[in-house]
Amino acid sequence: MPHLYDAQFWRDRADKALIIADTLVTPEARETLLDIARAYQRLVAMSERRAATNRMAETGDPGGRR
């Protein structure tokens, strides 16, 4: 689970899924990859929220400044 809260990890996968989806001709396959990309994008948002919560807990500032 090392990547569970790594937003960039999930963002990279979403980008790759979108690139592949753009090459697909079969509508069902394309939609499946778009669904996967959307799921990765939800993981990006979750990871970013988690990181902001952690920064807030550590510094008292959601931007991470002390």
Name a few traits of the molecule.
mainly alpha; 2 helices
Structure, described:
The protein contains 2 helices and no strands. It is an all-alpha fold and 66 residues long. The mean pLDDT is 89. Helix 1 runs antiparallel to helix 2 (27-59). The chain has one domain (7-59). 76% of the residues lie in helices and 0% in strands.
Q: Outline the biggest β-sheet.
A: none
Compressed to H and E, one letter per element, the order equals: HH
Oligomer: single chain
User: Helical element count?
Assistant: 2
Number of strands: 0
Shape: rod-shaped
**Uncertain residue segments:** none
What is the count of distinct domains? 1
* Proportion of strand residues: under 5%
User: Mean pLDDT, nearest integer?
Assistant: 89
- The helicity comes to over 70%
Q: How far is the N terminus from the C terminus? A: 29 Å
User: For the CA atoms, what is the radius of gyration?
Assistant: 15 Å
Classification by helices and strands = mainly alpha
